[in-house]
Amino acid sequence: MEKIGEKVSKKTVKKRWPSYVWFPFIVACITIPLGFYLVNWSKQGVGAGLYSHQWVPDAIFAYWSPKEFYQSVDSVQGVFEGEQCITCHQGLAPGIVNDWKNSKHANPAEGKKTVYCNDCHGSDHQNLHMPTPDICATCHQQQHAQFMDEKRFGFPSHALAMERALDAGHFVDKPKAEVTACVQCHSVATKCDSCHSRHEFSAAEARRPEACITCHSGPPHPDDESYFASAHGKIYLAEGDTWDWSKPLKKGNYKVPTCAYCHMDNGKHQVANKSIWKFGIKQINPQTSSNEIKRNQWVNRCSECHEPNWSRQQLKTLDTERKLAWDKLNKAELLLRLLRSDKLLFPAAGNRPSYPNSYFDKIFPRERIGFFDGQASAFYNVSKIERDYFEMWYFDNLSAYKGAAHGDFMRVNISHLALDQKLIELQEQAIQIRRLSEQEKQANISPETDDFFNSGDYTDFNRENN
Amino acid sequence: MEKIGEKVSKKTVKKRWPSYVWFPFIVACITIPLGFYLVNWSKQGVGAGLYSHQWVPDAIFAYWSPKEFYQSVDSVQGVFEGEQCITCHQGLAPGIVNDWKNSKHANPAEGKKTVYCNDCHGSDHQNLHMPTPDICATCHQQQHAQFMDEKRFGFPSHALAMERALDAGHFVDKPKAEVTACVQCHSVATKCDSCHSRHEFSAAEARRPEACITCHSGPPHPDDESYFASAHGKIYLAEGDTWDWSKPLKKGNYKVPTCAYCHMDNGKHQVANKSIWKFGIKQINPQTSSNEIKRNQWVNRCSECHEPNWSRQQLKTLDTERKLAWDKLNKAELLLRLLRSDKLLFPAAGNRPSYPNSYFDKIFPRERIGFFDGQASAFYNVSKIERDYFEMWYFDNLSAYKGAAHGDFMRVNISHLALDQKLIELQEQAIQIRRLSEQEKQANISPETDDFFNSGDYTDFNRENN
Amino acid sequence: MEKIGEKVSKKTVKKRWPSYVWFPFIVACITIPLGFYLVNWSKQGVGAGLYSHQWVPDAIFAYWSPKEFYQSVDSVQGVFEGEQCITCHQGLAPGIVNDWKNSKHANPAEGKKTVYCNDCHGSDHQNLHMPTPDICATCHQQQHAQFMDEKRFGFPSHALAMERALDAGHFVDKPKAEVTACVQCHSVATKCDSCHSRHEFSAAEARRPEACITCHSGPPHPDDESYFASAHGKIYLAEGDTWDWSKPLKKGNYKVPTCAYCHMDNGKHQVANKSIWKFGIKQINPQTSSNEIKRNQWVNRCSECHEPNWSRQQLKTLDTERKLAWDKLNKAELLLRLLRSDKLLFPAAGNRPSYPNSYFDKIFPRERIGFFDGQASAFYNVSKIERDYFEMWYFDNLSAYKGAAHGDFMRVNISHLALDQKLIELQEQAIQIRRLSEQEKQANISPETDDFFNSGDYTDFNRENN
User: Fold this and answer.
1) pLDDT digits (tens, 9 = 90+) for B49-104
2) Chain C residues in contact with B208 (beta carbon < 8 A)
3) pLDDT over threshold 60, residue A27
4) Number of CB pairs < 8 Å for A and C?
5) Residue C126 in contact with residue C72, Cβ under 8 Å?
6) CB 3.0-4.6 Å disulfide test: which of A137, A181, A253, C165 passes with A247?
7) According to the model, what pLDDT value does residue B456 have?
């Protein structure tokens, strides 16, 4: 018996894996493929991204994410190439043919061949396609590789712009008209003519700030206004038209820097390796060791024209501005958290629809206070004081940041005036909320709960066509 | 007796018209001429338009509506012509003489005669005039006829801009300083140098967006900002200075379109025949059969450079945006209407001055909620919640519209964020109004009526100098 | 006795000064030197200006007020001159050397000598300096004298910009990040490259509006937006790039005026002698005899292109606009004063920190209502209604003014819409404050005083690093 027992136990030792080994292993064998399958399935809907089953793309998306959505128009039959395309389209749309004629594609360097319409769009007129970055990469490998390299720095990033948008929960939540507006700029990831406009695809054009600011504008990222308001921008505005934009973005070639000069080292198609504060959306320690490396890159770039000491001080000025802005934002956030803990926020988290597609939010509804508590969903269905804080954080804070980063000091002042004003406004609201509630308590009135936020059109119109 | 009776009745039948014929006829004979007489009388005051007896023009109006108000300055005596004018004014104001020297007027095509100062201003120096469109029409008949043709499309319209302003009730209501500002742009109807600036009167100049945006700017019609923020605008900004603006506005002549390229078919001086949404002020069905004709015109124009399918989708994107904006506006309007029916708007319609010159409003005072309930008068003397809705409708809504119409998608996003924010703000105000009133009811307090809106300076300064 | 008496009295008359003579004299002998000593002492701190003991300059200040703060960087040893400097810096910072090569300094008129780096920065590389206006004045005496002449017109003034900022109490009160932003523009007094950007120092550049609007922009002085929105500005934007900017700012040389054309008579470096309304900050009588002189100067300048009558009417239009704006502001101010006299402003003056460094404010705390009651300090620690009035006065009012002054009539309209909106908003707040207080009185509730404004971080962060 013992022998058998020994044998068995030996065998067991040898052959049986303990349960803490095989159980997780089996679970992993099931869940990992299942996860892959589910993610894959969730992306197979008529829309795109993780919520592809929950929305239908607008026809216009075909032009912004062509790989996902473009379908050739069934017009002319036949296979055409080279000058054949030109001959016909010269009459149909002479403007874009003129652009092509001015391009390097039509006037290639010696020894290189002309790039015709069909090289990018295909030849079978029943089956044309819109050029995606990998089609451009057939010739422009280096630039494409640099562009894709941005992905390793995480979001925000040009290369990740489309997929992150399509995978976001609020992409489904937002009304289609707004999503369409988002996707237009996020298409920078899926087509090269966001910067090199068709059909000239000029490098010279993309070196000018106008190439960037079609998207980099508006309250959450006033890169255009802050640059043009700076001394750099003013000189560009007055004299830029006389400069030779065919020169590469190198030291000494331009009187003042443009967007691309500072953000793309010597024209490198990757703008993420110098990003310290990202979009100013979160509070960040600007002096971590990895940020010190980025700061040195900045100082080197600035020092192509300025004293290195001056350059370093400019970055410090930005640090000081950021600290001040976050002092104000944290102060405001505290006001809201105190209201929340006193149960004075109305509508409370439970009184409004949960963040779409978030099971976590369905089980544990949260007030939406600032970035970590709500992000994009903070746009909708919230009380005025939460919304006002969102505006303070998303508009005034980011405006101040861009002003400080681009040397638009007027903007720094104005935006901090706005932060102060919002802080006073929030404080006044908090006081009013407390006074009104105190009176209601004394008078034994309980205010009617209102369905405005929780159901009905306001919520519905956000989703009706998605 | 019978005979006589018969005779009489026969006579009556033959000769007397029944009262339902002659009575209205006589009334019409009196009222129609009386109406003409009254309208004529009402336009004979020292001001202009239907309320001409109720206001006095500022001296500066002489330059904006010269036919109505300009009087020659009594300076130099004598009759002067051609080079005589030039000789003297060369020394007095060399800048404008230089402009003339660069003009086609000074350098006419072969066989045409030079157009001198006196051809437009007159020769008798005691009796000079400012050139009005019909003076320009002496030579430029076709352009003038096209311009006047806009009238048949109704207002808004360049050709009707001045008369509609001068006939508007709130022209009298508004403070003079504001009316002056209005009239400056509305003078587009009464002088051609709004677009072709004096004294070069260049067609090339008027083809550039700057010619239009002196007026087409500001929150209610940010045509400038929305165009310049679009891909079209960015390319214009970066490269427009190098283009040949002497070319007509025809297919293939310009890399990107400008205002005039899209809105004036091949340079035709009439911009109303493609207007679908008008100014975005009212909710409109964009797919009536007459709008389908306009949509086709648009698609044709866009298709000079873009795929027709793309062009059609852009218009659909605009439809979607408009629907969403009006969903939000209607939601806000409902909030106000509910407050009104619960008698919670303060000041109520009866607590403030009636809309000026409106007898209807004197008898049936109305709250001013949105376009149909109040229009321009909504600017003054209203409660905060009515005013806030006005701002939502007049600024954020129109901004969203212009963004969608001109391809400025950032603006679409920002403006819809603002619409959402205003909706939350209005809802919060409605809640506060109800809570406060409920408490007052329970405590038997009736809030003091306040004379701030109904009398005193606020109302008076609107009218004092008019 | 009489004789002696007479003698004595005579003696007294002759030899003893009465106490009302010698007492003030002695007091003056003590206090005047003491005053000088104290002011001198107060300026000797590590900061600058009257409160120099209470703050520490940021390193970046070295570049903005170099005389006060710049210290040479201890890098290279040796004494260098002329081409030696160029040789080395050509490699280090080719951009700025290129600028110099394009300058008149590098290409002097015949008979004049080249101006090298060391002429402005010094030769000893261990002891370099930043060029201050008096260094530029070595050659450019006339321009410097004109510039300094502005001082006699009082503040606002370019020449006084830095010292008035550094002597202001709120310079100490404001967070460093904001002060830094202020000082950047105020450095116009302490370095000439605010307008003539380094190292080309071109007169042509400074004639263009871009030279001015790096500072003259933003809500409190939208000179840029109001000029560019005017007919003058639009023509400049469309055609300015083709003009010959080497021409002096004289009659007939430019198609439309720029900032410098109107504000600097024939290029004279003094812009204060035509200033009627100053910054629009105070209500001013525009028709005093001294203002009549200024008005004539304006009319003369405008009449270089326009009818003198037209020019005069434009100024009158500005008068009308100003009167209307102040009617609205005074109306708003009255609302606040009534709340104050009813003790309904919260926090009341005593509930918040006194204006920094003001002993008067410590003893007699004041509510901060408009310009005379508070000025800059109104930015912080005030109730919402006071703050909102500040915004109305500082942003909307000044925007209206700039619109009227520069011919941007759209801005006049929009800004007056904003003034109306704020007036309604303030009225609503006043009503709410009164209703809520009335209820609390009836219910015997006294609202908690809140420490938010009086102590803690909000106040502290304004001062922590100063």
Assistant:
1) 888 888 888 888 888 899 989 988 877 899 999 999 999 999 999 999 999 999 99
2) 238
3) yes
4) 143
5) yes
6) A253
7) 46
Nearest CA of chain C to the CA of A201: how many Å? 25
Cβ proximity of A272 and A157 under 8 Å: yes
pLDDT at C250 over 90: yes
- ipTM confidence: 0.88
Q: Which of B169, B171, B195 is nearest to B58 (CA)?
A: B171
Contacts of residue C363, Cβ cutoff 8 Å, sequence gap at least 6: none
Provide the b/e sequence for A180-219 (b: ≥16 CB within 10 Å).
bbbbbbbbbbbbbbbbbbbbbbbbbbbbbbbbbbbbbbbb
- DSSP letters, C168-196, are -HHHHHS-HHHHHHHHHHHGGGT-GGGTS
Q: How many angstroms separate the CA atoms of A346 and B53, rounded?
A: 54
**Residues in C touching B439 (Cβ below 8 Å):** 439
* Chain C residues with CB-CB distance to A431 below 8 A: 346, 447, 450
Among candidate residues A433, A392, A436, the one with its CA nearest the CA of residue A415: A392
CB-based contact B69:B45 (threshold 8 Å): no
- A445 to chain C nearest CA, in Å? 13
Q: Give the nearest chain C residue to B435 (CA atoms).
A: C436
Residue owning tokens 């000064």: C17
Contact assessment for residue A202 and residue C174, using Cβ atoms and an 8 Å cutoff = no
Instruction: Report the residue from C60, C95, C213 with minimal CB separation from A313.
Output: C60
The tokens for C358 are 């003001």
Instruction: Tell me how close the Cα of B448 comes to any Cα of chain C, in angstroms.
Output: 9
- Residue B39 C-alpha, separation from nearest chain C C-alpha, in angstroms: 29
Q: Which of C389, C452, C462, C465 to mutate to test the interface with A (most CBs of A within 10 A)?
A: C452
Q: What integer best gives the mean pLDDT of chain A?
A: 87
pTM: 0.90
Classify the phi-psi angles of C333: left when phi > 0, otherwise alpha if psi is within -120 to 50, otherwise beta: alpha
Is B161 in a helix, a strand, or coil?
Answer: helix
Question: In this structure, how many other beta carbons lie within 10 angstroms of the beta carbon of residue B5?
Answer: 9
- Give Cα A14 to chain centroid, integer Å: 54
| Chain A residues with beta carbon closer than 8 angstroms to that of C347 | none
Please count the other Cβ atoms lying within 10 Å of the Cβ belonging to residue C159.
24
Q: What pLDDT band is residue B450 in, cutting at 50, 70 and 90?
A: low
Predicted confidence band at B421 (pLDDT cuts at 50, 70, 90)? very high
Residues in B touching C234 (Cβ below 8 Å): 210-211, 213-214
Whole-number Å distance between alpha carbons of B242 and B231:
17
Return the DSSP state at A465: T
Chains that touch B (3 or more CB pairs under 8 A): A, C
DSSP H/E element including B12? helix B2-15
Please tell me the distance in Å from A148's CA to the nearest CA on chain C. Answer: 31
Residues of A in contact with C214 (CB under 8 A): 229-231, 234
Touching subunits of A (3+ CB pairs, under 8 Å) are B, C
Q: Which of B185, B453, B457 sits opposite C409 (nearest CB)?
A: B185
Per-residue pLDDT of B275-305, as tens digits, reads: 888 888 888 899 898 899 999 999 999 999 9
As a whole-number percent, the residues of chain B with pLDDT over 70 amount to 89
- The model's pLDDT over A275-331, given as tens digits with 9 standing for 90+, comes to 888 888 888 898 888 899 999 999 999 999 999 989 999 999 999 999 989 988 988
Q: How far apart are CA C225 and CA C219, in angstroms?
A: 10
